[in-house]
Specification:
Blueprint (H helix, E strand, L loop, with lengths): L1 E8 L8 E6 L2 E5 L26 E3 L5 H4 L2 H7 L4 E5 H20 L18 H4 L3 E4 L5 E2 L9 H6 L5 E6 L7 E7 L2 E5 L23 E5 L11 H17 L4 E4 L5 H14 L8 E4 L2 H10 L19 E3 L15 E4 L9 H9 L6 E4 L8 H6 L6 E4 L2 E4 L3 E4 L8 H11 L3 E5 L3 H14 L4 E3 L6 E5 L1
Parallel strand pairs: 3-4, 4-5, 5-6, 10-11, 11-20, 12-15, 12-16, 13-14, 13-15, 16-19, 20-21
Antiparallel strand pairs: 1-2, 1-22, 2-3, 7-8, 8-9, 9-10, 17-18
Helix pairs in contact: 3-8, 11-12
Bound molecules: zinc ion (ZN) (2 copies).
One zinc ion (ZN) binds next to loops.
Length: 465
């Protein structure tokens, strides 16, 4: 069987992640992301490089914007493809795309391909979720190669026993790795994956058998994680208690999807165990609707504590319009709010402007900060020294601490998975060059027979399985 792989976006970086696979005639696109920073042609997957290649199916691994934000453009370009995802992801599609549409209204989009914005209109919002077939984890779905729309040449060769199976990726709710099987061959795309458990989600449950081809994310590929999960939890408890003891409040900027819910659970556990004082928790932004979806699937997807409801955590939702007069400015509190990288204008950005001026307050930077973001500038700031944040000169008087609760697999876990499945063909994606190169060296040193590729944007890679 001949396989062709082509990256439509997200090669050599965490960008507009999108991968095309042609399995002996069956064309499949996995994910359609929006680049976190760029708003030119590279903001969206480059569907045009496909030329007249067929696309029969579109598979969505999870609902983060760097995998889903380009979907309206994909739908416009490939309206006939069968769209497939998991149930929680389907429920999240509309909420997350609503936010993408808001982003496009705030930011200049004149360099996007002509007509790209046509499907980014509020009137389109209710049309996105229904186009998806929602399937369960671990249940193979038969894929057909219908030749009526694509000419007969594809259908003549495409395998008749082609199946797709979603495996829990443990990254955020609904996240999945995709296993494609045909003619006895197995091709796996990890999507974003977390192998060890988080506060809410269990770790990934991926097939461990031999793979003919593995496409694996490398977010943490360059990094030896210095702290373990429990250690980070202890450091967070100490930081919160320290700020409380000086009568201050703690701001924890978090991504709305995934990190907010995990951090809510961590803080709740710390409060229940009396490892931090009884202090009020506030949250807000778009996380409210997302948290409801976590609760909707409290029993239906693998969880650390099946049935646990985030709505059982006593907390207060703050509104964007009134948050600057929030109670947390007057009494020691914890505020868990998006965006995770303090994007300009977001609730966490607005609150941080005020937080920074209050000496006994603290900000806990919770995750990865892209170098172009206000969060990165804040993370690298020194106390009481002027610095530039979103083109404004500011001074940070408050305390600052960094915590790592990554929702991505550690480097050693990624390598373990590669070594367990011993793929004939390995593609390293979703990571910066330092991460993918570091992974390449480690794999080469241990298994020189594995054919390793760090794919380039728009380049075609063909091989036999
Ligand atoms: Zn993700
Ligand atoms: Zn991602």
């Amino acid at each position: 069987m001949t396989i062709e792989l082509m990256m439509l976006g997200g090669a050599g970086e965490i960008g507009a992640n999108s991968c095309y696979l042609n399995i002996n005639g069956h064309g499949m696109v996995i994910d359609a992301g929006l680049h976190p920073r760029r708003r030119d042609r590279a903001a969206l997957p480059e569907v045009e490089v496909l030329g007249d290649r067929p696309v029969h199916s579109f598979v969505l691994t999870h609902a983060h914007t760097d995998h889903l934000g380009g979907f309206p453009y994909m739908l416009k370009s490939l309206p006939h493809a069968r769209m497939i995802t998991t149930r929680p992801t389907r429920d999240l599609v509309e909420i997350m795309l609503r936010n993408t549409i808001k982003l496009f209204n705030l930011e200049p989009t004149t360099q996007l391909p002509s007509g790209a914005l046509e499907y980014y209109a509020p009137a389109m919002l209710d049309k996105f979720s229904p186009v998806f077939d929602a399937v369960l984890y671990n249940e193979p779905v038969a894929l057909s190669t219908d030749d009526t729309q694509y000419g007969s040449s594809a259908a003549l060769t495409a395998p008749k026993d082609l199946t797709l199976t979603f495996h829990d990726a443990g990254h955020i709710i609904g996240s999945a790795g995709v296993l494609v099987e045909a003619n006895g061959a197995a091709i796996m795309h990890t999507g974003d994956v977390k192998f060890s458990p988080q506060a809410l989600l269990k770790g990934a449950s991926f097939p461990k058998h031999h793979l003919d081809c593995l496409i694996i994310e490398c977010t943490n590929g360059a990094e030896e994680n210095p702290h373990g999960y429990e250690e980070e939890k202890t450091r967070l408890a100490e930081f919160i208690t320290h700020i409380y003891n000086q009568n201050g409040s703690v701001l924890l900027p978090t991504f709305a999807l995934g990190k907010t819910q995990e951090v809510l659970k961590i803080v709740h556990e710390l409060r229940q165990a009396e490892r931090i004082p009884k202090m009020p928790i506030f949250t807000g932004g778009m996380s409210k609707r997302i948290t409801k979806i976590y609760d909707r699937y409290a029993e239906a997807v693998p969880r650390q504590e099946p049935g646990f409801l985030l709505k059982s955590i006593p907390l207060t939702y703050v509104k964007y319009e009134t948050m600057m007069s929030g109670k947390f400015f007057n009494e020691p509190s914890i505020v868990i709010i998006s965006s995770g990288m303090l994007n300009e204008g977001s609730p966490s950005y607005q609150l941080a402007q005020r937080w920074m001026t209050i000496r006994n307050f603290g900000i806990g930077v919770m995750g990865y900060q892209d170098s172009s973001t206000p969060g990165y500038a804040l993370l690298h700031s020194e106390r009481d020294v002027e610095f530039t944040m979103a083109n404004k000169t500011v001074i940070r008087a408050c305390e600052l601490e960094r915590f790592r609760f990554s929702a991505h697999a550690r480097r050693d876990e990624l390598l373990d998975y590669i070594f367990a499945t011993k793929p004939n063909h390995l593609f390293l994606v979703h990571g910066d060059p330092a991460a993918t190169e570091s992974m390449r060296s480690a794999v080469e040193a241990n298994f020189p027979d594995i054919n390793i590729t760090i794919p380039q944007h728009g380049e075609s890679y063909q091989f036999e399985v």
